[in-house]
Each structure stands twice: as C-alpha cells, then as structure tokens.
Design goal:
By secondary structure, the protein is mainly α. A two-stranded antiparallel ribbon has the order 1-2. It is elongated. One of its GO terms (biological process) is chromatin remodeling.
C-alpha cells in the first residue's frame, strides 16, 4: 500500500517536486492538452470544489447554560426573543390521554367511573376497585366529581 494511503494526510515534499513519468504512447492526446495549458504543478492549481480553512468552522458547540449566560451579559431590546422570554401558543393537537392506573397511553374509558385504562387486564383491576377509590384516581388528573 502506498505511503499516502496509510493515513498520512499529505504527500512527502519529494513527491511534489519529482515529475511523473507516464507512458506517452498511451495518453498522448490528454497530455497534449495538459502541456499546452502551461500547468507544471497540479498541487498549486486552485481547487474550488475542496473546502478551505476560511469556510470551515473552528467554533465549538455551546451547551444551553453557556448560551443563556452569554445572552444575559448582552443588552437586548425589550421585544427581542431570548431563551428566557420565549412564549409558545397553546397546542392545536388534542391532549394525550394516559391510563390512570399504569400511566401508559389510554385507549379506553370506563363509562361508569370515567377512569381511563390501557388494556383489558387493567380494566379487570378497575372493576375490582373499592367504591370511592376511583375518585382518588380522578383527583390525580383533576377530573374528580365533587358531589354536594
């Protein structure tokens, strides 16, 4: 394996200065255009398709704590949005429903007690709850009914 393919990033300086000997009979036409162009060293030719150091970012990623600390040191206009002042409108999506017993997504609601449950196994537990305990589960999600 050649030395330049073993992980080295640049060729040795002697490889740049030494001319490359090609079989002139095979590649006479492409070499004629190359010789007419007047280019002697291909390494000196500008390559616009390669990334240069002026376009590469030397900065590092900042975590949220660093960004917030940097924001607080600057004087921002009052209406300028920052991490501390971002307000979001209420969601247009419906609120997710979770099982009152397990906390898993609830697909079903018991019509008698209004307790949400995930599956048939959880429904068996809901049916065996003592009277009044379903009100405690509903109170956890602020859906309990207070009779006066």
């Amino acid at each position: 394996m050649p030395a330049y393919k073993r992980g080295k990033k640049s060729r040795p300086s002697s490889a740049v200065d030494t001319p490359v000997h090609l079989d002139v009979a095979k590649e006479a036409e492409p070499l004629a255009n190359f010789r007419e162009s007047g280019i002697n060293n291909l390494y000196a030719v500008a390559k616009p398709f390669k990334r240069t150091s002026e376009f590469m970012s030397t900065g590092r990623w900042k975590n949220l704590k660093q960004v917030v600390a940097q924001e607080q040191t600057k004087d921002w206009p009052i209406e300028f949005p920052t991490y501390w002042s971002i307000d979001a409108p209420p969601s247009l999506l419906p609120q997710k429903k979770y099982c009152d017993i397990t906390g898993l997504p609830a697909k079903y609601t018991d019509p008698k007690t209004n307790v949400r449950y995930h599956s048939a196994e959880v429904y068996q537990i809901v049916k065996t709850l003592p009277p009044g305990s379903e009100q405690l589960y509903l109170a956890l999600r602020n859906a309990n009914i207070i009779l006066r």
